[in-house]
Amino acid sequence: MKLEDFDYELPEELIAQTPLKDRSSSKLLVLNKDTGNISHRHFKDIIDYLEEGDALVVNDTKVLPARLIGEKEDTKAIIEVLLLKNIDNNNWECLTKPAKRVKLGTVVSFGNGLLKAKCIKIGEEGVRTFELIYEGILYEILDKLGTMPLPPYIHEKLEDQNRYQTVYAKEIGSAAAPTAGLHFTKELLEEIKKKGIRIAPVTLHVGLGTFRPVNVSKIEEHKMHSEYYVLSKETVDILNETKANHKRIFVVGTTSVRVLETVMNKYGKLMPCSGWTDIFIYPGYQFKIVENLITNFHLPKSTLIMLISALAGRKQVLKAYKEAIQYQYRFFSFGDSMLIISEKEEKEK
User: Which segments within the chain are labelled E, that is strand?
Assistant: First the structure.
Protein backbone atom coordinates (compact mmCIF):
# COMPACT_ATOMS: atom_id res chain seq x y z
CA MET A 1 0.00 0.00 0.00
CA LYS A 2 1.10 3.57 -0.64
CA LEU A 3 1.83 6.10 2.06
CA GLU A 4 -0.34 8.64 0.24
CA ASP A 5 -3.36 6.36 0.80
CA PHE A 6 -3.36 7.48 4.44
CA ASP A 7 -3.14 11.21 3.87
CA TYR A 8 -5.85 13.77 4.57
CA GLU A 9 -6.05 17.56 4.82
CA LEU A 10 -6.50 19.02 8.28
CA PRO A 11 -7.02 22.73 9.00
CA GLU A 12 -4.27 23.80 11.39
CA GLU A 13 -6.76 25.41 13.76
CA LEU A 14 -8.22 21.97 14.55
CA ILE A 15 -4.96 20.76 16.10
CA ALA A 16 -5.68 20.90 19.84
CA GLN A 17 -3.03 22.93 21.66
CA THR A 18 -4.28 22.52 25.21
CA PRO A 19 -6.35 19.92 27.07
CA LEU A 20 -9.97 20.66 27.94
CA LYS A 21 -10.71 21.64 31.53
CA ASP A 22 -12.84 18.52 31.96
CA ARG A 23 -11.12 15.46 30.47
CA SER A 24 -14.37 13.61 29.77
CA SER A 25 -16.14 16.50 28.03
CA SER A 26 -14.36 15.91 24.71
CA LYS A 27 -16.40 14.90 21.70
CA LEU A 28 -16.78 11.22 20.84
CA LEU A 29 -17.23 10.09 17.24
CA VAL A 30 -18.71 6.58 17.14
CA LEU A 31 -17.91 4.60 13.98
CA ASN A 32 -19.63 1.30 13.34
CA LYS A 33 -16.95 -0.64 11.50
CA ASP A 34 -19.47 -3.08 9.99
CA THR A 35 -22.06 -0.63 8.66
CA GLY A 36 -20.04 2.56 8.36
CA ASN A 37 -22.64 4.44 10.43
CA ILE A 38 -21.33 7.45 12.33
CA SER A 39 -22.83 9.12 15.39
CA HIS A 40 -21.66 12.01 17.54
CA ARG A 41 -21.58 11.90 21.35
CA HIS A 42 -19.40 13.11 24.21
CA PHE A 43 -16.71 11.00 25.82
CA LYS A 44 -18.56 10.59 29.13
CA ASP A 45 -21.23 8.74 27.08
CA ILE A 46 -18.71 5.91 26.61
CA ILE A 47 -20.34 4.23 29.58
CA ASP A 48 -23.53 3.76 27.51
CA TYR A 49 -21.63 1.40 25.19
CA LEU A 50 -20.25 -0.74 28.02
CA GLU A 51 -22.21 -3.53 29.69
CA GLU A 52 -21.84 -5.54 32.86
CA GLY A 53 -19.22 -8.24 32.33
CA ASP A 54 -17.30 -6.34 29.66
CA ALA A 55 -13.61 -5.55 30.12
CA LEU A 56 -11.79 -2.28 29.49
CA VAL A 57 -8.09 -2.63 28.59
CA VAL A 58 -5.94 0.39 29.50
CA ASN A 59 -2.23 1.13 29.15
CA ASP A 60 -0.96 2.08 32.62
CA THR A 61 2.41 3.42 31.46
CA LYS A 62 3.55 6.71 32.98
CA VAL A 63 5.34 9.40 30.99
CA LEU A 64 8.83 10.40 32.02
CA PRO A 65 9.68 14.12 32.09
CA ALA A 66 12.05 12.91 29.41
CA ARG A 67 12.92 16.06 27.44
CA LEU A 68 16.20 17.56 28.61
CA ILE A 69 18.00 20.69 27.44
CA GLY A 70 21.74 20.71 28.13
CA GLU A 71 25.04 21.83 26.71
CA LYS A 72 28.13 20.12 25.38
CA GLU A 73 30.89 20.26 27.96
CA ASP A 74 33.52 21.28 25.43
CA THR A 75 31.77 23.84 23.20
CA LYS A 76 28.74 24.78 25.34
CA ALA A 77 26.51 24.16 22.29
CA ILE A 78 22.86 23.63 23.27
CA ILE A 79 21.70 20.02 22.86
CA GLU A 80 18.20 18.62 23.31
CA VAL A 81 17.90 15.01 24.44
CA LEU A 82 14.69 12.98 24.60
CA LEU A 83 14.99 9.75 26.59
CA LEU A 84 13.33 6.97 24.59
CA LYS A 85 14.14 3.72 26.31
CA ASN A 86 16.31 2.28 29.03
CA ILE A 87 18.51 -0.36 27.39
CA ASP A 88 20.31 -1.54 30.51
CA ASN A 89 21.64 -0.05 33.73
CA ASN A 90 22.19 3.66 33.00
CA ASN A 91 22.35 3.32 29.21
CA TRP A 92 19.48 5.04 27.39
CA GLU A 93 18.51 5.29 23.74
CA CYS A 94 17.68 8.93 23.01
CA LEU A 95 16.48 11.19 20.23
CA THR A 96 19.01 13.99 19.95
CA LYS A 97 18.91 17.48 18.38
CA PRO A 98 21.05 18.56 16.64
CA ALA A 99 22.36 15.01 16.39
CA LYS A 100 25.22 15.92 14.06
CA ARG A 101 26.90 17.78 16.94
CA VAL A 102 26.95 14.66 19.11
CA LYS A 103 29.79 12.24 18.32
CA LEU A 104 31.09 9.20 20.17
CA GLY A 105 32.43 10.34 23.51
CA THR A 106 30.52 13.65 23.51
CA VAL A 107 29.40 14.60 27.02
CA VAL A 108 26.26 16.69 27.49
CA SER A 109 25.69 18.35 30.86
CA PHE A 110 22.27 19.17 32.37
CA GLY A 111 21.51 21.31 35.42
CA ASN A 112 25.10 22.45 35.94
CA GLY A 113 26.32 18.86 36.03
CA LEU A 114 23.52 17.39 38.15
CA LEU A 115 23.10 14.96 35.25
CA LYS A 116 25.56 14.14 32.48
CA ALA A 117 25.12 12.04 29.36
CA LYS A 118 28.07 10.47 27.53
CA CYS A 119 27.45 9.29 23.95
CA ILE A 120 28.47 5.62 23.60
CA LYS A 121 26.71 4.69 20.33
CA ILE A 122 25.60 6.42 17.13
CA GLY A 123 22.24 5.36 15.67
CA GLU A 124 20.15 6.39 12.67
CA GLU A 125 17.71 9.29 12.31
CA GLY A 126 19.04 11.32 15.22
CA VAL A 127 19.15 8.44 17.71
CA ARG A 128 22.09 8.26 20.12
CA THR A 129 22.79 5.94 23.05
CA PHE A 130 24.01 7.72 26.17
CA GLU A 131 25.43 6.54 29.45
CA LEU A 132 23.76 8.68 32.12
CA ILE A 133 26.06 9.83 34.93
CA TYR A 134 24.51 11.11 38.17
CA GLU A 135 24.27 10.66 41.91
CA GLY A 136 20.99 9.76 43.61
CA ILE A 137 17.73 8.61 42.03
CA LEU A 138 17.36 9.24 38.29
CA TYR A 139 13.60 9.82 38.30
CA GLU A 140 13.94 12.46 41.01
CA ILE A 141 16.61 14.20 38.94
CA LEU A 142 14.39 14.08 35.85
CA ASP A 143 11.57 15.65 37.85
CA LYS A 144 13.90 18.58 38.56
CA LEU A 145 15.48 18.96 35.13
CA GLY A 146 13.14 17.43 32.57
CA THR A 147 9.88 18.48 30.96
CA MET A 148 7.05 16.50 29.40
CA PRO A 149 7.94 15.49 25.82
CA LEU A 150 4.98 17.09 24.09
CA PRO A 151 4.61 16.44 20.35
CA PRO A 152 6.12 19.07 18.02
CA TYR A 153 2.70 20.21 16.76
CA ILE A 154 1.83 21.50 20.26
CA HIS A 155 3.16 25.04 20.58
CA GLU A 156 1.43 26.16 23.79
CA LYS A 157 2.97 25.66 27.20
CA LEU A 158 1.36 22.92 29.28
CA GLU A 159 0.52 24.55 32.62
CA ASP A 160 -0.26 21.31 34.46
CA GLN A 161 2.22 18.53 33.64
CA ASN A 162 -0.23 15.91 34.94
CA ARG A 163 -2.58 16.63 32.06
CA TYR A 164 -0.17 14.69 29.85
CA GLN A 165 -0.66 11.65 32.10
CA THR A 166 -3.66 9.35 32.29
CA VAL A 167 -5.35 9.25 35.70
CA TYR A 168 -4.37 5.57 35.96
CA ALA A 169 -0.71 6.03 34.96
CA LYS A 170 1.44 3.83 37.18
CA GLU A 171 4.46 2.22 35.47
CA ILE A 172 7.01 4.92 34.65
CA GLY A 173 8.91 4.61 31.36
CA SER A 174 7.17 6.30 28.40
CA ALA A 175 8.48 9.01 26.12
CA ALA A 176 4.90 9.94 25.13
CA ALA A 177 1.44 9.53 26.62
CA PRO A 178 -1.02 6.85 25.48
CA THR A 179 -3.37 9.69 24.60
CA ALA A 180 -6.63 7.77 24.11
CA GLY A 181 -6.69 7.33 27.88
CA LEU A 182 -6.39 11.06 28.62
CA HIS A 183 -10.20 11.39 28.38
CA PHE A 184 -10.93 9.26 31.44
CA THR A 185 -11.49 10.86 34.83
CA LYS A 186 -11.32 9.00 38.13
CA GLU A 187 -15.05 9.64 38.55
CA LEU A 188 -15.90 8.16 35.14
CA LEU A 189 -13.77 5.10 35.84
CA GLU A 190 -15.58 4.59 39.14
CA GLU A 191 -18.94 4.75 37.33
CA ILE A 192 -17.67 2.20 34.83
CA LYS A 193 -16.54 -0.14 37.60
CA LYS A 194 -19.86 0.22 39.43
CA LYS A 195 -21.64 -0.85 36.25
CA GLY A 196 -19.74 -4.14 36.42
CA ILE A 197 -17.03 -3.52 33.85
CA ARG A 198 -13.58 -4.73 34.86
CA ILE A 199 -10.48 -2.63 34.22
CA ALA A 200 -7.63 -4.69 32.72
CA PRO A 201 -4.27 -2.87 32.70
CA VAL A 202 -1.43 -3.64 30.30
CA THR A 203 1.87 -1.79 30.01
CA LEU A 204 3.55 -0.57 26.84
CA HIS A 205 6.22 2.08 27.25
CA VAL A 206 5.66 4.40 24.32
CA GLY A 207 8.85 5.18 22.44
CA LEU A 208 10.04 6.09 18.98
CA GLY A 209 8.07 3.24 17.38
CA THR A 210 4.73 4.89 17.99
CA PHE A 211 5.43 8.41 16.76
CA ARG A 212 8.31 8.11 14.28
CA PRO A 213 7.21 9.35 10.82
CA VAL A 214 6.89 6.87 7.97
CA ASN A 215 9.53 7.81 5.40
CA VAL A 216 8.94 5.15 2.75
CA SER A 217 6.40 5.33 -0.07
CA LYS A 218 5.44 1.65 0.28
CA ILE A 219 4.27 1.25 3.85
CA GLU A 220 5.20 -2.45 3.92
CA GLU A 221 8.85 -1.35 3.93
CA HIS A 222 8.49 0.67 7.14
CA LYS A 223 10.26 -0.77 10.18
CA MET A 224 8.86 -0.12 13.64
CA HIS A 225 11.12 0.70 16.58
CA SER A 226 10.73 -1.81 19.41
CA GLU A 227 8.89 -0.93 22.62
CA TYR A 228 8.74 -2.76 25.94
CA TYR A 229 5.47 -4.33 27.10
CA VAL A 230 4.10 -6.30 30.06
CA LEU A 231 0.96 -8.43 30.19
CA SER A 232 0.13 -9.60 33.72
CA LYS A 233 -1.58 -12.79 34.87
CA GLU A 234 -4.34 -10.71 36.45
CA THR A 235 -5.18 -9.08 33.12
CA VAL A 236 -4.92 -12.36 31.22
CA ASP A 237 -7.40 -13.92 33.66
CA ILE A 238 -9.83 -11.01 33.30
CA LEU A 239 -9.74 -11.12 29.49
CA ASN A 240 -10.02 -14.90 29.25
CA GLU A 241 -13.00 -14.87 31.63
CA THR A 242 -14.60 -12.06 29.62
CA LYS A 243 -14.31 -14.08 26.40
CA ALA A 244 -15.50 -17.29 28.10
CA ASN A 245 -18.61 -15.43 29.33
CA HIS A 246 -19.28 -14.17 25.77
CA LYS A 247 -18.77 -10.57 26.86
CA ARG A 248 -16.81 -7.91 25.04
CA ILE A 249 -13.35 -6.44 25.34
CA PHE A 250 -12.95 -2.70 24.75
CA VAL A 251 -9.36 -1.63 24.16
CA VAL A 252 -8.20 1.89 25.01
CA GLY A 253 -5.55 3.13 22.61
CA THR A 254 -3.40 1.72 19.83
CA THR A 255 -0.62 0.94 22.32
CA SER A 256 -2.90 -1.47 24.18
CA VAL A 257 -3.86 -3.02 20.84
CA ARG A 258 -0.22 -3.66 20.06
CA VAL A 259 0.34 -5.49 23.36
CA LEU A 260 -2.62 -7.83 22.93
CA GLU A 261 -2.02 -8.57 19.27
CA THR A 262 1.72 -9.12 19.87
CA VAL A 263 1.00 -11.76 22.50
CA MET A 264 -1.72 -13.44 20.40
CA ASN A 265 0.63 -13.62 17.41
CA LYS A 266 3.46 -15.03 19.49
CA TYR A 267 1.60 -17.62 21.56
CA GLY A 268 -1.79 -18.10 19.87
CA LYS A 269 -3.46 -17.16 23.15
CA LEU A 270 -3.18 -14.63 25.94
CA MET A 271 -0.61 -15.52 28.56
CA PRO A 272 1.41 -13.59 31.15
CA CYS A 273 4.61 -12.31 29.56
CA SER A 274 6.83 -9.34 28.88
CA GLY A 275 9.25 -8.38 26.14
CA TRP A 276 9.83 -6.10 23.18
CA THR A 277 7.44 -5.59 20.30
CA ASP A 278 7.92 -4.01 16.89
CA ILE A 279 4.53 -5.13 15.54
CA PHE A 280 3.32 -2.99 12.64
CA ILE A 281 -0.42 -3.24 11.98
CA TYR A 282 -1.79 -1.94 8.69
CA PRO A 283 -4.70 -2.91 6.36
CA GLY A 284 -4.67 -6.58 5.55
CA TYR A 285 -3.79 -7.52 9.11
CA GLN A 286 -6.14 -10.07 10.70
CA PHE A 287 -6.93 -9.14 14.30
CA LYS A 288 -6.73 -12.02 16.76
CA ILE A 289 -8.57 -10.48 19.72
CA VAL A 290 -9.24 -6.75 19.30
CA GLU A 291 -12.72 -5.78 18.06
CA ASN A 292 -13.72 -2.57 19.83
CA LEU A 293 -11.30 0.35 20.13
CA ILE A 294 -11.30 3.71 21.89
CA THR A 295 -8.77 5.98 20.20
CA ASN A 296 -7.90 9.56 19.30
CA PHE A 297 -7.63 11.23 15.90
CA HIS A 298 -4.20 10.55 14.43
CA LEU A 299 -1.73 12.32 12.19
CA PRO A 300 -1.90 11.86 8.41
CA LYS A 301 0.41 9.14 7.08
CA SER A 302 1.11 7.83 10.60
CA THR A 303 1.36 4.19 11.68
CA LEU A 304 -1.55 4.92 14.05
CA ILE A 305 -4.02 5.83 11.32
CA MET A 306 -2.83 2.72 9.49
CA LEU A 307 -3.64 0.59 12.53
CA ILE A 308 -7.19 1.89 12.90
CA SER A 309 -7.65 1.55 9.13
CA ALA A 310 -6.77 -2.12 9.50
CA LEU A 311 -9.53 -2.44 12.10
CA ALA A 312 -12.26 -0.33 10.55
CA GLY A 313 -11.33 -0.03 6.86
CA ARG A 314 -9.27 2.75 5.31
CA LYS A 315 -12.12 4.35 3.36
CA GLN A 316 -14.43 4.33 6.37
CA VAL A 317 -11.78 5.84 8.60
CA LEU A 318 -11.00 8.63 6.13
CA LYS A 319 -14.74 9.28 5.73
CA ALA A 320 -15.08 9.52 9.52
CA TYR A 321 -12.11 11.90 9.69
CA LYS A 322 -13.67 14.06 6.99
CA GLU A 323 -16.90 14.25 9.01
CA ALA A 324 -14.94 15.01 12.18
CA ILE A 325 -13.31 17.96 10.39
CA GLN A 326 -16.73 19.11 9.21
CA TYR A 327 -18.01 18.99 12.80
CA GLN A 328 -14.95 20.87 14.09
CA TYR A 329 -13.52 18.06 16.19
CA ARG A 330 -10.19 18.72 17.90
CA PHE A 331 -7.34 16.52 16.64
CA PHE A 332 -4.27 14.68 18.00
CA SER A 333 -2.94 14.30 21.56
CA PHE A 334 -5.17 16.82 23.38
CA GLY A 335 -8.00 16.42 20.91
CA ASP A 336 -11.30 14.55 20.79
CA SER A 337 -11.96 10.83 20.76
CA MET A 338 -13.30 8.04 18.59
CA LEU A 339 -14.98 4.74 19.36
CA ILE A 340 -14.79 1.97 16.77
CA ILE A 341 -17.42 -0.69 17.42
CA SER A 342 -19.08 -3.60 15.64
CA GLU A 343 -22.63 -3.90 14.31
CA LYS A 344 -23.86 -5.70 17.43
CA GLU A 345 -23.09 -2.73 19.67
CA GLU A 346 -24.70 -0.31 17.22
CA LYS A 347 -27.97 -2.27 17.26
CA GLU A 348 -28.10 -2.14 21.03
CA LYS A 349 -27.95 1.65 21.22
Answer: 27-32, 38-42, 55-59, 61-63, 67-72, 78-88, 91-97, 107-110, 115-122, 127-134, 171-174, 198-204, 227-231, 249-252, 273-277, 292-296, 337-341
